[in-house]
Write a structure and sequence with these properties.
Blueprint lengths: L1 H34 L14 H23 L5 H17 L1 H4 L2 H29 L13 H9 L3 H10 L9 E10 L8 E10 L4 E11 L2 E10 L2 E8 L3 E7 L1 H13 L13 E7 L2 E8 L2 E9 L5 E12 L2 E11 L4 E4 L2 E4 L1 E8 L2 E16 L2
Antiparallel strand pairs: 1-2, 1-15, 2-3, 3-4, 4-5, 5-6, 7-8, 8-9, 9-10, 10-11, 11-14, 12-13, 14-15
C-alpha cells in the first residue's frame, strides 16, 4: 500500500510538471501570434515587435522539445530547459504587466531543473565509478582443478548450499546487475519509506555500486549511493539528488562495505570459492566466513537450513549515530519462501535487515530482489 501510494504521488508530480510545461509552451505561442497579428487578442494591449515575437515562438518550440526529452527520460533534458527559461523570463520582464504570471511557471520549471541536474550528476558519478568496477580478479583466473580443490575444502553445509544453488554448474559471471525494491526507515520508530534501487557488483573481486531512490515525502526523495571500490567504501546521500545530507567514508565505512559484499555473495555463490575467504564449520548448519582483503579483515556467520538454503547472516558491523561509530550486531534474515531462480541459480530474493543495538533491535530494511542479470564481457 505504501509503495503504491508513493508511485501514485511520483506519477502525479511528473504529470503536474508536464502540464505546467505544456501550458507554458502554449502561452509563449500567444506572444508570437500577437507580434504578427495572426489573431486578434484584445486583452493584450501592449504591442510586441516581430523579433521578440520570434523569440516567444522559439521558447515555445524549445519548451516542447524539452518536454519530449523529459518524458522519454533523457538525463540532459535540463540543459536546453534552463537556457530557455532564461530567455523566457527575459521576455516576461520586458512585458511584465501582461506576462508576469509566467514567472510562476518558470519557478516551477527551475525547481524541476535543479532536481534534474542532481540526477544527471549522480548518474555521471555512477559512470565514473563503473570504470573502477574491475573485471579481472583472483576468481577469474581459477582453473577447474583449483575450483574443485577449493570446493573440497569447504564445510559440508557450504557445499550443500553451493550444490543447492546450482551456481557451480553455470559460467562464472564477470559482473552482476540487480534491481531491488522495498522499504526502509532511519530510526526504530521511524516511518517506513519505499525505495527502488540498482546495484552493480563485481562477484570476482570485492567491488559494488548501489544506487537507491527513497520516497520520503510526497514530491520529495532521497538519493543514496553506496559503493566499495579499490578497497574503499563510500556512502553519499542527497535530498532531491541535489542537497548533500551525508558523505561517509573512512575505516569504519570500509569495514561495513566489505562486510556487505561478503554477506551478499549469496546472490553470486561462486564467490564462496574466493581465495581471500576462509570457511570454518561451526555446526551442522552454520559456517563462519573469514575474509581478508586489502588491509581489512571481516567475518560473518552464515546459517542454513538442512537443505542448504541460507536462513540468516550475522556479523559485527560499525553503526553510526551522531557522528560516533560503535560495533553492533548486524543481521540479515531470509523470509519464508524468499527464494527464486535467476540465470539457473537459486538465490534469496526476499530479505529483512536489522541491527541488534545495545538499546534494542532496529529493523530498518525490507528488500526484494526484482531482477538479476549476469554479465559476461
Amino acid at each position: 500500500m505504501l509503495a503504491e501510494r508513493s508511485i501514485y504521488l511520483r506519477n502525479f508530480m511528473k504529470h503536474f510538471f508536464v502540464i505546467v510545461l505544456v501550458l507554458h509552451s502554449i502561452i509563449h505561442l500567444v506572444g508570437f501570434i500577437k507580434s504578427f497579428n495572426l489573431i486578434e487578442i484584445s486583452h493584450l494591449t501592449k504591442p510586441i515587435s516581430r523579433p521578440l515575437g520570434i523569440l516567444w515562438l522559439f521558447c515555445s518550440l524549445i519548451f516542447f522539445f524539452c518536454l519530449y526529452a523529459f518524458w522519454v527520460g533523457y538525463l540532459w533534458w535540463w540543459i536546453p530547459t534552463i537556457v530557455t527559461v532564461i530567455i523566457s523570463q527575459t521576455l516576461i520582464i520586458l512585458d511584465w504587466k501582461e506576462a508576469s504570471y509566467g514567472t510562476i511557471a518558470n519557478l516551477i520549471i527551475i525547481f524541476a531543473v535543479a532536481v534534474g541536474v542532481g540526477q544527471w550528476g549522480m548518474e555521471n558519478t555512477i559512470k565514473e565509478k563503473m570504470e573502477h568496477l574491475t573485471y579481472t580478479s583472483q576468481m577469474s583466473v581459477l582453473e577447474k582443478e583449483e575450483v574443485k580443490e577449493r570446493f573440497d575444502e569447504l564445510p559440508e553445509i557450504v557445499k550443500n548450499w553451493l550444490n543447492n544453488s546450482n551456481a557451480l554448474n553455470q559460467p562464472f559471471p564477470e559482473k552482476l546487475f540487480l534491481r531491488q525494491s522495498g522499504k526502509m526507515r532511519t530510526s526504530p520508530d521511524g516511518k517506513w519509506m519505499p525505495f527502488k534501487s540498482r546495484q552493480w557488483i563485481n562477484p570476482n573481486e570485492p567491488a559494488f555500486i548501489w544506487k537507491a531512490e527513497v520516497n520520503m515525502l510526497p514530491g520529495f526523495h532521497l538519493s543514496g549511493m553506496d559503493s566499495y571500490l579499490s578497497g574503499r567504501g563510500n556512502m553519499n546521500i542527497r535530498l532531491m539528488s541535489v542537497i548533500p545530507i551525508a558523505d561517509a567514508s573512512g575505516p569504519e565505512t570500509d569495514q561495513g562495505s566489505l562486510l556487505r559484499w561478503l554477506a551478499e555473495l549469496v546472490w553470486y555463490p561462486q564467490a564462496a570459492l574466493h581465495r581471500s575467504i576462509a570457511w570454518e564449520e561451526v555446526d551442522s548448519t552454520s559456517a563462519l566466513a573469514k575474509m581478508s582483503f586489502g588491509n581489512k579483515e571481516v567475518e560473518g556467520l552464515f546459517k542454513f537450513d538442512h537443505s542448504g538454503d541460507l536462513k540468516s547472516f550475522n556479523a559485527g558491523r560499525y553503526f553510526e549515530k551522531d557522528g560516533e561509530f560503535t560495533l553492533e550486531e548486524w543481521v540479515i534474515t531470509v523470509n519464508e519462501n524468499g527464494y527464486k531462480n535467476f540465470n539457473g541459480v537459486r538465490i534469496p530474493t526476499d530479505l529483512k535487515v536489522k541491527w541488534n543495538l545495545s538499546d534494542g533491535p532496529f529493523h530498518w530494511l525490507n528488500m526484494h530482489v526484482d531482477a538479476v542479470e549476469w554479465v559476461w564481457d
